Amino acid sequence: MTAMVGTPTLTIGRLVLRAPGQNDTDRIMALIRDEAVVQWLARVPWPYRRSDAETWVAGAVDGAAKGDEYAFAIDKGGLIGIVGLRDVRTAPELGYWLGRAWWGQGIMTEAVGAVLAFAFDALGLSRISSGVFKGNDASLAIQRKFGFMEIGESDFPSLYHDRTLRHIDTRLSESAYRSHQS
Ligand SMILES: CC(C)(COP(=O)(O)OP(=O)(O)OC[C@H]1O[C@@H](n2cnc3c(N)ncnc32)[C@H](O)[C@@H]1OP(=O)(O)O)[C@@H](O)C(=O)NCCC(=O)NCCS
Question: pTM of the full predicted structure?
Answer without folding.
Answer: 0.97
